[in-house]
Design brief:
ten-stranded antiparallel β-barrel; 150 residues; Lipocalin; 0% helix; globular
Length: 150
Amino acid sequence: MEHTFLIEPGRWTLEGTWLARDVSTPPLSVRGAILVAWSNDDWFTMVMKLGFPKASDAETIALQYRGRLTSSDRQYTFVLQHSQLGRVEGEGWVAPESIVQRYWALNDRQRRTGFETLHRIDSDHYHLSSGIMAGHYLTTAMEATLVRQG
């Protein structure tokens, strides 16, 4: 079974839980939409919007990726505009059962970095685990299910 997320153009929904380092804040429900597109010159774009439907004071998070797979089709690099982190660069690996990526915010005094693992359940479902760190400390984590739309 080959990957469908990121490797193929498509629309996905995301639903899960967002955790913050502040222990007084309970886990938040998170929902989102993801659009993946490919250009004729083998560059991908991915746009993701995350919202918190039960938290009136939480801001929507917007991410805009642009990247390219290497000739091996197993590794990729990307740039990202992140509504919380600003300009970001990253790399990813396409493993047999998962897609793993890490990224780092540019010109960031807090030295924020992040990681994501997307484990393939089947061609229409993935499980996402991700986190953002500031220096040596995990500041947020998210776990979610991605479902391919039509």
